[in-house]
Design goal:
Layout: E1 4-5, E2 10-11, E3 16-17, E4 22-23, E5 28-29, E6 33-35, E7 40-41, E8 46-47, E9 51-53, E10 58-59, E11 64-67, E12 80-83, E13 88-89, E14 94-96, E15 104-107, E16 112-113, E17 118-119, E18 124-125, E19 130-131, E20 136-137, E21 142-143, E22 148-149, E23 154-155, E24 160-161, E25 166-167, E26 172-173, E27 181-184, E28 189-193, H1 195-200, H2 205-220, H3 225-235, H4 240-250
Parallel strand pairs: 1-4, 2-5, 3-6, 4-7, 5-8, 6-9, 7-10, 8-11, 9-12, 10-13, 11-14, 12-15, 13-16, 14-17, 15-18, 16-19, 17-20, 18-21, 19-22, 20-23, 21-24, 22-25, 23-26, 25-27
Antiparallel strand pairs: 27-28
């Protein structure tokens, strides 16, 4: 089915628009843009050069996709924002494209970005994440699958959030938040395991206890992160979830919260 495009939208003839899209009046779309099938683009959205958008996304009023990087290293190179399928991008969200030639800011599938969220250059977001009102993600960050960052969270540059972690409202952090945990406050601290999410995704109760034991060694022990990882390997029964935690901790360059 052909797309329903308002004649009052300003769309470059070079842009590639998929089938069965709905594009409202006063949308602005530049030349180097690709939009998949079934997307809904509400009024006053700007979709700029470098956008690669998948299927069935909804982009609400005032959002800006592929805004120029807010990075002093940016010299005008060609870069991208890559957005997957079935995302909801609410009002006034800003997503910056990559800083350097070939760089990408990536947003996966089935994410929900609430009003005023800002995702800066070269950040990589997984799938099934939720970003609350006014949350800001700095450049070169990584966010795993199923993560929840509630309202007014500030994630500082080059930090990571693991799969199925939750960061509570108003938190600011400059170190990594590991998988399956709940964290919050200023300064941000470990607040336990994200047990409801673990159960939602089908993790066995016994494994949830193992996850809690692993993080007890990390956050309640009086040893270095390196030694805590060794203790997890020695003391906690193995599983894919425990391997995910070990790998995340071993790859941490900023350290953990």
């Amino acid at each position: 089915m052909a797309s329903d495009i308002s004649p009052r939208a300003e769309i470059s003839p070079k842009a590639k628009i998929g089938n069965n899209c709905k594009i409202y009046p006063f949308v602005y779309i530049e030349d180097d843009v690709e939009i998949g099938d079934g997307c809904i683009i509400f009024p006053f959205v700007s979709i700029l050069n470098g956008t690669r958008m998948g299927n069935r996304n909804k982009v609400h009023q005032g959002a800006v996709i592929a805004a120029l990087p807010q990075d002093f290293e940016f010299k005008g190179e060609k870069s991208e924002v890559v957005i997957g399928d079935c995302n909801v991008i609410r009002e006034n969200v800003v997503i910056n494209r990559g800083t350097h030639a070939g760089g990408q800011t990536v947003v996966g599938d089935h994410n929900f970005l609430m009003e005023g969220v800002h995702i800066l250059h070269d950040t990589k977001v997984g799938s099934h994440c939720v970003f609350g009102y006014g949350t800001k993600i700095a450049g070169n960050c990584e966010i795993g699958n199923g993560a929840i960052l509630t309202s007014a969270v500030l994630q500082l540059p080059e930090t990571r959030v693991g799969d199925y972690a939750m960061v509570t409202s108003g938190s600011i952090f400059n170190k990594d938040v590991p998988p399956y945990v709940m964290a919050g406050g200023n300064p941000i601290v470990f607040n336990g395991i994200n047990t409801p999410m673990c159960k939602t995704i089908g993790i066995d109760d016994k494994v949830i206890k193992h996850i809690a034991n692993a993080y007890r060694l990390v956050f309640r022990g009086k040893v270095s992160l390196f030694d805590a990882v060794l203790q997890i390997k020695e003391q906690v029964p193995d599983s894919p979830e425990i391997q995910k935690i070990i790998q995340f901790l071993e790859n941490s360059e900023k350290g953990v919260i």
